[in-house]
User: Which sequence fits this backbone?
C-alpha cells in the first residue's frame, strides 16, 4: 500500500470519524479515531498526580515538541557561529550579537481539549510556536496523535503546534519565563457551578496575577464561554484586576484569533449545534497597573 | 446522586470518611519559637499552647485568652448534629471537672442555644489555650509589641503587649506577675493556617493557609486603645460569667474581638504555603510553597489590595520548600558589592539555597543533608551501607561542642530507625513521571534562621540533633559550613531563632504525635571568635527553664522504639498510592491500542517509503 493512497483514505475516513460501522480491515485510518480517546469532561485540577514538570523554564527541552524547528534553529546557530568565527572577529562577540533567541512558545491554549483551536491557529500563524495544555491524559494523547498525523500529511505545516499534559493552574511558571507569552486562550472553561468550587475556576484573581506575569505587556487574554454566569464572572474578575484592560470590539473585529474563538474548538461547534449563545471576553495585559480602589 | 442517598447506600464508606484522616492523627505537634525584639521575652508554642516567658527573670507573661464564642455551626445541615455533639461534650466535661474552675459553669447545660458556648467555655476553663488546634505560626512584630499566632483551628490571632510593660523590661518591674497580653484582633482563615509573618513596617499581619492564599489583617494602629478595649471586655466577660444571660453577654463581648475576615493578598494556587517573609526594602514579599517554588511578589501600595505583580520566581529546589528568610547585610561590614539583602531558603531536598530575589537567580546551594539512598549502596545491603554512609557524613563534619560521644551513639540509632520510612520511598524516586520530587530521598531541612548581622545561617535538618551553622560570605555570595553545634539536653531540634543580641535559640522535642516534651537550648558566639558555644544555663534562669521546658523521659524511649523520623515534613509530602494497582488499571485503556496502531502504521509507512526510495535509487544507478 503506497503512502499516497493512505493519505487519501485517511482524509475520507476523518469525515465519518464516529462511524462504528466501518470495517477495520478495509483500510487503515491514519488519523486517530476520537472514540478511543473519549474521557469525562471533569478532571479534578486540585490533584497532583503524574506530571513531569521541569524545575525551571530554562531546563525544559522543547525539541521534543517542535523537533524540526529546534533542529533548524540549532543549525542556524552553528552556521552563524562558524561564520562569525571565520570572519575574524572574536567569536564570542559575533555569536552574542548576531545570535537569535531560541524559538519560544508564544501562544498557549489552556485546556485545549481535542485540539481544534490549536490546529486552526497553526495555519494562521505558521511562524509562531503554540502549545496546548490539557489535564486529561487520553485527550492529550489524541491531540498528540492528531498533530503527528497532520504533520505527516502536510509536511512543512503544523510544525509549530504541540500539546502538553499538565495542570496549568499550578505549573505554568515552571514552563514559561516572565513575559514570554503573547496570547493566552481559555475556551469554554469548566464553569464549576457550586459556590464552594468557584475557587477552581481557571480565571480568578490570584491566577490572573500569574497569567499577567507570563504575558508580555500588550499581550492578549482570550476567554469565551457559553454559560452566562461564567461569562459575567470572568468579566468581573478581569475588570477587577489592575493589569488587564478590555479590548474594544473594533479591534476584535480585526483580530484573526478572536474570530476563531467561537467555532474552532469541538466544544464551540457543539454549542453552535445546540444554538447556544457565547460570551466572549478578551483583555489586554497592561504595562503598568491601573490604580486600585 | 445526593449526599444523603449516597450515605444510605454506602454506610461503611460513609463511616470511614467520618473518621479523622490518618494524616491529621500522626501529625506531631510542632514546637515553635519566637523571640521578642529588643526585649528578653521568648515565646514557645507546642500543640495548642503558647507560653511566653521573660527568660531573665523567669516570670511567665500570660496571654489573656478570650472566652470562646458560641461555636457557629459550619453548615446549616450540621447545626443540629453539632448541638447534639456539644451537649454530649458538655455533659462529659461537667462530669469530669466537677470542681468549679475559674469561670463558673452553669450547673445544667441543657439549654440548646447555650450548649455550644458553655461546652466551649467549659473546655476553655479546663485548659485555656491560645488556639483550639495546633499552633503553626508564631511571630513577633518587628517592634516587638505584638505577637501573631495562627493555628489549625483556621484562625489567626494578634496579641499585644499592654502599654505599661512593653518596651524596656529593665529592673523597674518588681511585680511578680506581668500584665496579660490580650487578643486585639482575630481573623478567620478559610483553611488551616500554615505560615505567617509581619510586613516589614509591622503595620499588617500576613498569614497563609493550606490552600495557598496569603491573607492580610491590619494591626490596629492605636495599640494602646485596642489593648485597653480588649482587656475591658475580657474582664467584664469573666466576672459575670454565670447564668445563661451572662454567658450570652460574654459571648457577645468576645465576639467583638472575634472573627474578622482578612483580605487576600495573593495566592499560590492549591499549594500549602510554608513561609512568608517580607523583604527589607519594604516593597516585596517572598512566599514559599510545597510545590518547590519560591515566589517574590510586589506588594501593592496599600496592603489590603491585591498584589498584581510577580517580581520573580526562584525556581531550583527539587522538593518542597520548608522555610525562607531574608539575610540583611549590616552596613559597613565587608566590601562585597551588590544588594544588601539576599533570600535564603531550605527545602525537603536537603539543600539550603541563596537567591538574588529581585531576579530569581540562584547564587549558591549548600547541601545540608546527604541523600540517603545511593544506587550502588541500595543494591547492596540497604541497612548497613546507608547507615555507614550517614555515619561517616555526620562524623566528619562533627566539630560541635557538647557531648560528642553521646551524639555519635545516638546517631547510629537514628540512622537505623530512618531506613524504614525511606527504604519504602526509594523505589519511586525515579521512573514514574510524577511531580513528586525526583531528588533522592534525604532528610529535609526543617527550619533556618539568619543572625541579625547577616553573617550566619543556622539550619535544622529533621532527624539530626546537630544544628548546622553556615557562614554567609557577602563578598562571594556563598554559603560555607562553619560549625555543627549540638546541645546535650535538646533532642530533635525543631526550630531555631536568633535573639536580638545575636544568641542562637533552639527548641526541640520528641516528634511523636502525643508528645508533650519541649526542650530549649541557647548558644552564643564565643568571645573573640565566630564559633558558638552552648550557654543554656548561663542565659536561662532555672525558673524560666522550668516554665519553658517540659521533659517527659519516657517519650525518648518511645521514640527510640518506633518513632517515625520524618514526621514533621510528612504534611508536605504527597500521600503515596499503590503504583501496581494504578498501572494495572491503566493497562486496559482504550486509547493505548489506538496509539499503538497508529505508531505501527507510521512505521510501516516509513519502511515502505524507505524501501521505495532505495529501490528507486538502485534502479537509477543500475
Assistant:
Amino acid at each position: 500500500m503506497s503512502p499516497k493512497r493512505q493519505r487519501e483514505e485517511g482524509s475520507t475516513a476523518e469525515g465519518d470519524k464516529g462511524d462504528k460501522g466501518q470495517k477495520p480491515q478495509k483500510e487503515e485510518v491514519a488519523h486517530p479515531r476520537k472514540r478511543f480517546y473519549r474521557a469525562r469532561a471533569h478532571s479534578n485540577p486540585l490533584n497532583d498526580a503524574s506530571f513531569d514538570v521541569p524545575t525551571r523554564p530554562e531546563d525544559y527541552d522543547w525539541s521534543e515538541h517542535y523537533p524540526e524547528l529546534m533542529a533548524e534553529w540549532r543549525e542556524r546557530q552553528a552556521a552563524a557561529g562558524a561564520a562569525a568565527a571565520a570572519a575574524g572577529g572574536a567569536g564570542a562577540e559575533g555569536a552574542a550579537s548576531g545570535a537569535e533567541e531560541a524559538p519560544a512558545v508564544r501562544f498557549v491554549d489552556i485546556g485545549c481539549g481535542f485540539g481544534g483551536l490549536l490546529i486552526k491557529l497553526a495555519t494562521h500563524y505558521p511562524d509562531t510556536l503554540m502549545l496546548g495544555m490539557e489535564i486529561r491524559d487520553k485527550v492529550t494523547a489524541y491531540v498528540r496523535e492528531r498533530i503527528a498525523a497532520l504533520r505527516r500529511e502536510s509536511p512543512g505545516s503544523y510544525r509549530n503546534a504541540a500539546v502538553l499534559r499538565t495542570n496549568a493552574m499550578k505549573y505554568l511558571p515552571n514552563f514559561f519565563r516572565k513575559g514570554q507569552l503573547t496570547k493566552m486562550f481559555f475556551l469554554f472553561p469548566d464553569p464549576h457551578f457550586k459556590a464552594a468550587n468557584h475557587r477552581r475556576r481557571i480565571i480568578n484573581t490570584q491566577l490572573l496575577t500569574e497569567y499577567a506575569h507570563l504575558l508580555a505587556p500588550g499581550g492578549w487574554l482570550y476567554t469565551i464561554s457559553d454559560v452566562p454566569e461564567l461569562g459575567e464572572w470572568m468579566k468581573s474578575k478581569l475588570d477587577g484586576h489592575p493589569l488587564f484592560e478590555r479590548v474594544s470590539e473594533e479591534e476584535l473585529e480585526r483580530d484573526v484569533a478572536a474570530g476563531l474563538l467561537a467555532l474552532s474548538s469541538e466544544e464551540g461547534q457543539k454549542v453552535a449545534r445546540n444554538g447556544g449563545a457565547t460570551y466572549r471576553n478578551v483583555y489586554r495585559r497592561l504595562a503598568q497597573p491601573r490604580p486600585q480602589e | 446522586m445526593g449526599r444523603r442517598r449516597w450515605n444510605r447506600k454506602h454506610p461503611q464508606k460513609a463511616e470511614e470518611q467520618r473518621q479523622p484522616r490518618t494524616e491529621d492523627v500522626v501529625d506531631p505537634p510542632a514546637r515553635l519559637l519566637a523571640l521578642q525584639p529588643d526585649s528578653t521575652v521568648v515565646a514557645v508554642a507546642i500543640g495548642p499552647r503558647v507560653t511566653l516567658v521573660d527568660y531573665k527573670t523567669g516570670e511567665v507573661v500570660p496571654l489573656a485568652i478570650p472566652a470562646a464564642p458560641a461555636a457557629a455551626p459550619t453548615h446549616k445541615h450540621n447545626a443540629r448534629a453539632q448541638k447534639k455533639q456539644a451537649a454530649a461534650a458538655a455533659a462529659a466535661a461537667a462530669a469530669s471537672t466537677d470542681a468549679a474552675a475559674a469561670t463558673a459553669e452553669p450547673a445544667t447545660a441543657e439549654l440548646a442555644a447555650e450548649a455550644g458556648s458553655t461546652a466551649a467555655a467549659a473546655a476553655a476553663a479546663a485548659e485555656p489555650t491560645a488556639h483550639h488546634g495546633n499552633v503553626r505560626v508564631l511571630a513577633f512584630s518587628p517592634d516587638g509589641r505584638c505577637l501573631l499566632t495562627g493555628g489549625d483551628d483556621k484562625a489567626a490571632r494578634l496579641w499585644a503587649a499592654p502599654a505599661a510593660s512593653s518596651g524596656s523590661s529593665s529592673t523597674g518591674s518588681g511585680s511578680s506577675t506581668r500584665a496579660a497580653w490580650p487578643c486585639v484582633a482575630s481573623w478567620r482563615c478559610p483553611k488551616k493556617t500554615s505560615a505567617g509573618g509581619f510586613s516589614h513596617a509591622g503595620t499588617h499581619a500576613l498569614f497563609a493557609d493550606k490552600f495557598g492564599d496569603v491573607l492580610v489583617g491590619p494591626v490596629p494602629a492605636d495599640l494602646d486603645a485596642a489593648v485597653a478595649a480588649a482587656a475591658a471586655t475580657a474582664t467584664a466577660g469573666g466576672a459575670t460569667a454565670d447564668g445563661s444571660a451572662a454567658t450570652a453577654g460574654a459571648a457577645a463581648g468576645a465576639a467583638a474581638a472575634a472573627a474578622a475576615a482578612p483580605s487576600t493578598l495573593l495566592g499560590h494556587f492549591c499549594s500549602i504555603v510554608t513561609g512568608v517573609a517580607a523583604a527589607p526594602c519594604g516593597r516585596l514579599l517572598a512566599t514559599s510553597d510545597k510545590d518547590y517554588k519560591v515566589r517574590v511578589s510586589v506588594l501593592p501600595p496599600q496592603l489590603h489590595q491585591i498584589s498584581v505583580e510577580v517580581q520573580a520566581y526562584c525556581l531550583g529546589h527539587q522538593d518542597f520548600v520548608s522555610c525562607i528568610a531574608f539575610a540583611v547585610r549590616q552596613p559597613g561590614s565587608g566590601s562585597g558589592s551588590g544588594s544588601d539583602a539576599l533570600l535564603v531558603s531550605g527545602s525537603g531536598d536537603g539543600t539550603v539555597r541563596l537567591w538574588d530575589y529581585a531576579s530569581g537567580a540562584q547564587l549558591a546551594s549548600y547541601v545540608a543533608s546527604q541523600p540517603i539512598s545511593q544506587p550502588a549502596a541500595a543494591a547492596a545491603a540497604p541497612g548497613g551501607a546507608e547507615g555507614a554512609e550517614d555515619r561517616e557524613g555526620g562524623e566528619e563534619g562533627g566539630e560541635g561542642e557538647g557531648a560528642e560521644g553521646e551524639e555519635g551513639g545516638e546517631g547510629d540509632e537514628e540512622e537505623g530507625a530512618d531506613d524504614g520510612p525511606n527504604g519504602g520511598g526509594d523505589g519511586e524516586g525515579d521512573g514514574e513521571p510524577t511531580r513528586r520530587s525526583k531528588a533522592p530521598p534525604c532528610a529535609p531541612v526543617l527550619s533556618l534562621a539568619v543572625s541579625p548581622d547577616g553573617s550566619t545561617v543556622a539550619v535544622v535538618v529533621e532527624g539530626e540533633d546537630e544544628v548546622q551553622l553556615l557562614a554567609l560570605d557577602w563578598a562571594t555570595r556563598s554559603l560555607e559550613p562553619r560549625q555543627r553545634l549540638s546541645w546535650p539536653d535538646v533532642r530533635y531540634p525543631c526550630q531555631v531563632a536568633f535573639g536580638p543580641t545575636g544568641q542562637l535559640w533552639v527548641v526541640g522535642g520528641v516528634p511523636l504525635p502525643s508528645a508533650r516534651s519541649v526542650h530549649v537550648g541557647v548558644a552564643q558566639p564565643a568571645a573573640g571568635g565566630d564559633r558558638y558555644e552552648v550557654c543554656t544555663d548561663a542565659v536561662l534562669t532555672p525558673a524560666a527553664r522550668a516554665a519553658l521546658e517540659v521533659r517527659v523521659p519516657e517519650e525518648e524511649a518511645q521514640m527510640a522504639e518506633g518513632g517515625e523520623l520524618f514526621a514533621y515534613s510528612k504534611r508536605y509530602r504527597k500521600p503515596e498510592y499503590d503504583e501496581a494497582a494504578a498501572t494495572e488499571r491503566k493497562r486496559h485503556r482504550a486509547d493505548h491500542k489506538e496509539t499503538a496502531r497508529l505508531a505501527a502504521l507510521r512505521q510501516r509507512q516509513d519502511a515502505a517509503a524507505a524501501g521505495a526510495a532505495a529501490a528507486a535509487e538502485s534502479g537509477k544507478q543500475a
Q: What stands out?
A: Confidence is low (pLDDT under 50) at residues 3-26, 94-98 of chain A. Chain A is about 40% helix and 15% strand. Chain A touches chain B through 48 residues (CB under 8 Å).
